[in-house]
Structures are given as structure tokens and as C-alpha cells.
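Memo to structure team: turn this sequence into C-alpha cells by end of day. - J.P.
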Amino acid sequence: MPKMTRTGKPKQSELPSTLRRSTAKAQRTFAQTHDSAATEYGEGRRAHQTAYAALKRGFEKIGDHWERKAALGPSDTQSALGGAGKRRQYRSAGGVDANASKKHLYDVAKRLGFAGRSRMTKSQLVRAIQRANDRASARAR
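Reply from structure team:
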């Protein structure tokens, strides 16, 4: 099902809930990429994976919405090494910018308000932010 209207605006009813709470640019990025991928590969899992991959290049998930990253680029090992179409699969960070600096991850953890962040390693911060994002998204639905 197309995610864009004929006038070029994202259909709010077709977007995932986290994107409905995000900026118009994030919505357009996802919707345009999804529609293009659906034309190329057909509607389904591959079109959604392609749209999320494009979204994660420029945005990161913080809490229950997506925010623009400081720099474009892959957000995790899965994205950096070729995406979901490859035979070898890696753990995805679920929208968390795992390639960001530890300081950035610490600041995100501080914004999300969880304790013990100063003693966490970078990978622990990524997992903790991912869990906090999942909880925030579930509460917002």
C-alpha cells in the first residue's frame, strides 16, 4: 500500500506509530523510500527493510520518535556491512546510532533518564537505550 499521497505528502494512517510522532522530513524519507522499494521489489518485508535502512542513515530513534543525526551514515553493523539482503546477518541496534560516540550515547541516556549510565560501556549504553526506546514506543501506542 503506498505511503505517499498524490500530492507528495506521507499518509499518516500508513506510517508506523513512531514515525507519526517524528518530523516531516523523517516521514517523507521513510514514505518515499518505501514506495520506491515497493515498486522495485513488491510490497512486503523487503520494502519495509529498505525504508527503515534509509531512515536510519539520517535519523536515530530516541524514545518514541525519530530525530535527525548529527552526521549521515550507517547506524549499526548490520547497516554498515550491507543490510538485510546479505546472507550474514548482524544484530541491529533498532534505530539507536550504535556508531555514535560514547559521549553522544551517554547524553541520549541522560535525556531518557536512566541510572547507572556513567558506569556503562558503549555496548551496554546501546542496549539500554534500545530497551528504553522500546518501552517508550509501547507506552505511546
